[in-house]
Amino acid sequence: MITRRNLLKIGGTAAMFAPFGGFTIDAAAAEGAPLFKFGIVADPQYAPVVPNLKLNRYYSNSLWKLSEAIEAFNQEDLRFVATLGDIIDRHWESYAHILPLYDKLKHERFFLLGNHDYDVAAEYLTSVVRTAGMEKAYYDFAGGGYRFIVLDGNDVSLFAPPKDDPRREIATKRLEYLKAKGAVNAQSWNGSLSDEQFAWLDKTIKTAQSAGEKVIVMGHYPIYPENEHNMWDSGRIVELLTASSNVVAYFNGHNHAGNFGEINGKYFVNFKGMVDTPATSAYSIVEIYDDRIEIRGFGREENRSLKIQSA
């Protein structure tokens, strides 16, 4: 878990990884090897409950699927592993079952939270972030010439803020507005960024640009292409990312079927849900090269090769 003992500072200011050790970036590139690699898991969505056959979700099977993924990750020289939300499906006690599996992971791990991570009793809502070992629900970290920005799409939603939090009222108004427009993503199980978080995102991208860093943004909710699972405020986020020359990609989960889009060399990759199907998992290893991103998919996840556009 992320703790103060890690060589990482999380919060509204820039954060830095401990240096990627063992090689220089130029030497690695000259040898044709990736600059660095990391693992991705989307939507384990574990719960000790019977499968939902209609949705093809096998909640308890995510324990062995995640264990299998961690074993595969441990065979690779990865800089970190990121889980793109929905660690659990429901019930507070589910965290005690699945989080210990990550203790077997040899690499740094990062979490972000999804809508199902808040499907717990009201008295536990303010403890979700801390239980996942996170200092804050949105943050950034850097290494290898990249800044990774982790978003909290539950910030303004109908389920994550505590009952009397004013963000719930804002969420109600945003959802009503989208429903009036007939928006396909006007769903109660989606969420959005607060204006404060959106301003932080803008500032963090600009700070990374000044530092000569490329940016990969990670969130639970998709933002492009248009889909019923997209964040309520996906439009303004897409506009910001596509207008920023140093942004390379946006990675997310939430839509378990997966999805993919591209706008002017910016890639939007929706990773498939691990929880789906009884016997086939889904996870990925992402390889960063100087000129491209290679995604190696396992199980249901597919391989992709994404060319990095010159700034």
List keywords for this structure.
single chain, 311 residues, alpha/beta, Purple Acid Phosphatase, chain A, domain 2, six-stranded mixed beta sheet, 7 helices, 21% strand, globular, disordered N terminus
Question: What are the SSEs and their pairings?
Answer:
Elements lengths: L24 H6 L5 E6 L20 H13 L5 E5 L9 H5 L9 E5 L15 H4 L7 E5 L2 E5 L15 H16 L13 H16 L3 E5 L15 H9 L4 E6 L6 E5 L2 E5 L11 E7 L3 E8 L4 E4 L4
Parallel strand pairs: 1-2, 2-3, 5-6, 6-7, 7-9
Antiparallel strand pairs: 1-10, 4-5, 8-9, 10-11, 11-12
Written account of the structure:
The protein contains seven helices and twelve strands. By secondary structure, the protein is an alpha/beta fold. The protein has one domain: Metallo-dependent phosphatases (Purple Acid Phosphatase, chain A, domain 2), CATH 3.60.21. The chain starts with 24 loop residues before the first helix and ends with a strand.
